[in-house]
Each structure stands twice: as structure tokens, then as C-alpha cells.
Amino acid sequence: MTLDATDRAIIEALQGGLPLVPTPYAEAAQALDLPEEELIERLQDMKDTGVIRRIAAATNHYKLGMTANGMTVWDVADNRLDELGPQIGALPFVTHCYERPRALPEWPYNLFAMVHGASRDEVEEKRSQITAILGDALRGADILYSTRILKKTGLRLRKKG
């Protein structure tokens, strides 16, 4: 897909986030002087063609009281990953879950799942639920706790010229 001037304007207008109002697409469309339906269709086209991957909230978990944030890492039998990965990703306390290649011998983990909680005890309890689901396919695990929040940004266009 080649971006036209309207697509670029949409990305530039929304790259800092959608307006925090009850009807964000309507307000964004009005600011762009577009019908709301066209804005939504163009965003869907950009998503369908891979120009953008997703539109999602980037929450600040610390401000929500979730100060114990742990990236759980799992060494799961390869032949069970397609079955178990989606189950872990569907858990209500997992904000994102994905497969990554191992970097043997130092890094044997191939499944990653971010878990948030108000305390490390809460995160450990949630981690135990994941352990139970993985069962005999689990060969090893660890957890990496966040020590600070990093700047979260989405798609950014470079200025022309």
C-alpha cells in the first residue's frame, strides 16, 4: 500500500494517540475534515495491508496501581506451543503474550507473557496459574520484573525533507 496525503495526515494526527473522549474516531475525523466512516475504513485498510499493526491503548500500569509488572518467560515444548500459547494469551491478567526464538544455551525461553499486579505476591500467584496450564509441556521458567516504565510510542512518520 502506498500512503496518500490523507493517509499520512491520519497517521500524523493520531500518532500521539486518539482523543480521550467518548467518541474518539468521530472527533479525530472532524479534526481531519473527514467523514468518520472514511477515517475508520482508511485505518482498517492500513491495518489490513500491514502499514499499521494495531490500534490499542498503551496504559500506564503504575498509575493504575499495578506496580509489580513481570515478564514471565517460559521454555515450552515446541510441539505444544501453538496449543498453549493462545490459552496463556487469553488469560485476563496477561496483557501481551508472544513466541520468540530461543538463544541457546543462555536463553532457553520461547514463550513470553506480561503479567501485572499490585504486588509481587499477586504476580507470583498469576504465574502459578500459567504454570498449571502449561503442565508437562513446561521445561523451565523465569520472571523479569520491571524496575521502571519506559516511554511507549506507536507509529511515527519522519518529517519530509
Verbal overview:
The longest helix has 15 residues, at 120-134. The relative contact order is 0.16. The chain folds into 2 domains: 5-48, Arc Repressor Mutant, subunit A; 68-145, Alpha-Beta Plaits (2-Layer Sandwich). The chain is elongated, with a radius of gyration of 20 Å. The protein has helices at residues 5-14, 24-32, 36-48, 78-89, 120-134; strands at residues 68-76, 94-99, 111-117, 138-145. A 4-stranded antiparallel beta sheet has the order 2-3-1-4. By secondary structure, it is of the alpha+beta class.
CATH class of the largest domain: Alpha Beta
Global Rg: 20 Å
Sequence of strands across the biggest β-sheet: 2-3-1-4
Oligomer: single chain
The CATH architecture of the largest domain can be named as: 2-Layer Sandwich
